[in-house]
Amino acid sequence: MKFEHPHSVAFFDHWQNLPREGLLPLRSSFLPEKVPRLLPTLSIYELVSRDYIKFRLIGTAIRERMGADMTGKNYLDFVDPARREKSAGSFWAVVEQPCAMRVISNHAMTSGRHMFLEVLMVPVENDRGENPVVLCQTNEINKPGKEEFHDPDGLKLVTVSNREFIDIGAGLSSFRD
């Protein structure tokens, strides 16, 4: 897998080297403070249900990008209602068929700012609770032609331009947008 951002590489390497008893590292083995340079773009999600994906931790760069601290809130409340089911499905795909997922997405913010993000999501075994947990690293990347997507009305627009699953030993998810 070729990653666009060096933090994605560092995050994936760190996750691969976490201690594990089975296929996945234990949630308790992932200590965010051990990867301080990745903290601003790190988020941790708890998959409570198909309708509730809870922000457990959200890095400062992500808070700034979103304009608020989303800790404790439902991620799906910030997704276009037409995409909620698919968005939730992508999170669940990572834990139901344990695999990593890399997404390149286009974001047109309400401020008028536009960015491309590389999102890397990996599952962990939740030894701290009942619900599945995923770790996520989200980094802004430069892509040619991003000015073409500028939204002069400041409308919020998020589109997935590429989604890839990474086999971590249990095969690949069949999820599709």
What do you see in this structure?
Helices cover 18% and strands 32% of the residues. The protein has 177 residues and is α+β, with helices and mostly antiparallel strands. The chain has a single domain (6-167), classed as Beta-Lactamase (2-Layer Sandwich), CATH 3.30.450. A 6-stranded antiparallel β-sheet has the order 2-1-5-4-3-6. It is globular. The relative contact order is 0.21. Mean pLDDT is 88; it is low at 146-155. This is PAS domain-containing protein.
Could you please say which CATH topology applies here?
A: Beta-Lactamase
**Compute the gyration radius: what is it?**
16 Å
Based on DSSP secondary structure assignment, what is the total number of beta strands?
Answer: 6
Helix content: 10-25%
- Separation of termini? 20 Å
Integer tally of domains:
1
Structural classification? alpha+beta
CATH homologous superfamily heading: PAS domain
Tell me the strand percentage band.
Answer: 25-35%
Low-confidence stretches: 146-155
| CATH first level | Alpha Beta
Main sheet makeup: 6 strands, antiparallel
Mean pLDDT: 88
Pattern of helices and strands: HEEHHEEEE
In one word, what is the shape? globular
Please tell me the CATH architecture by its name. 2-Layer Sandwich
